[in-house]
Amino acid sequence: MSSDTSKKIGLIACTGVVAGNMMGSGIALLPSTLAKVGSISIFSWIICLIGALSLAFVYARLATSNPQEGGPIAYAGEVSPAFGFQTGVLYYHANWIGNLAIAITGVSYLSVFFPILNNTIPAAIATIASVWIFTVINLLGGSWVSRLCTLGLVLILIPIVGTAVIGWGHFDSAMYMQNWNTSHGSNSHAIVSAVLITLWSFVGVESAAVSSGMVKNPKKTVPLATLLGTVIAGVIYILSTQVIAGMFPASEVAASGAPFALATTAIFGKWSAPFVAAFTALACFTSLGSWMMLVGEAGKRAANDGNFPAVFGETDKNGVAKKGLVLASVMMTILMIAITVFSSSDSHASNLFDILTSDAVLLTMLPYFYSAVNLIRYEGMTTRNVFVMLFSGVACIFCFIALIGADPSALAATFVVSLAIFIFYARKLGFRQHLQLEQQQKA
Q1: What is the pLDDT of residue 19?
Q2: Could you provide one GO biological process annotation from this protein's UniProt record (predicted)?
Q3: What are phi and psi of 181, to 5 degrees?
């Protein structure tokens, strides 16, 4: 077996990457964020799970019939080179911005041990340090990241599954109904707005497809890992968040920086809180490592397509885009410093988490939409399978629902950025066509 093959990951590790990317990044602060909407978010979860499974099917089908290294970036490029360029930019920046939210979550749980991390500047320093630690780990290769991610998934499952199963003994239906709609808006508005929050939990559904170049037998492994990871994460998400919604007043959960430590303390006693905080923090950080691997792969694909500077595509003997990873970490560091400077001194981790994840999800919506559109194109060209096209259509509608639920100003900013990218594409295209004209004239 060659050294390259030995560093590739199999089905269990790949499923761990998919589920771990979702759960490590999506679940830890989610009860606190959803408490600001209410337990009515159960309907948001149902919508989101249907949409996420549709997206999982899209990526599983594409990985089987039309495998492309780079996932959403490659699939958007097949619809149109302009969309491929746009997706490369959007997807890449969505990932590293989302990574910062994961790091903030991990540091928030560490505050159980180190109360100083409740202060803005120490928390920012710890967040930046965690980014660079896992950058170094990524430089060692994908096999290290997958091992850590699988370990993180196991650790975070302990308190979350414990809450999801045993917590029902502490569930109070009257409390659940009291927390039904805390958004101060209509029920329909609360449900739709919570879709964007819950969708963050499923960002990562494409993880296996993006990292297919680092997976053994990707045609079989990627589809199975994608569907299995989505189902595992979805079931655990719904059970654990709903039981917490029936255990405490929404205001108490919303103010908590470690909602699962809060829940397990009520279930098992105070002795459990440190263990839960440690497990969840480690799971967040291992997920951060896995997502950084994705950032490197996304940047490499964009560079190979000529849409990013060549430095993002430079790899070592193990296929790791070292310089791209370092550049992403530099950008995360700069953004964290900016957030620290401009945020108020009493900002909760859940508030920063909400802002960053909403931005990251909005930037991801177009790449997801283009992938679904590409499957419709591919099936129309080949099998013309109506069932597959139906699932692709559901995935498209789901993307529309998520965009409808966004804050108007955030949605407007995303729309402006998405259009502005075409200016740079036009410039690039103009240079390319100018060179072609010069070559024709010389010939």
Answers
A1: 76
A2: amino acid transport
A3: -135, 105
What fold does the segment set 9-405 form as a domain?
Amino acid/polyamine transporter I (1.20.1740)
Count the alpha carbons within 13 Å of 259 in the hemisphere toward its beta carbon: 34
Q: Is the pLDDT of residue 1 over 50?
A: no
N residues, the chain = 443
**Closest by alpha carbon to 138, among 28, 285, 2?**
285
323 dihedral zone (left: phi>0; alpha: psi -120 to 50; beta):
alpha
Instruction: Give the integer Cα–Cα distance in Å for 203 and 244.
Output: 22
**31 CB-near residues (< 8 Å, 6+ apart):** 240, 241, 244, 245, 253, 256, 259, 260, 263
Query: What tens digit of pLDDT does each residue of 168-198 get?
Result: 999 999 999 999 999 988 999 999 989 988 9
What are 130's two structure tokens?
């965690």
* Cβ–Cβ < 8 Å for 239, 45: no
For the entire predicted model, the pTM comes to 0.83
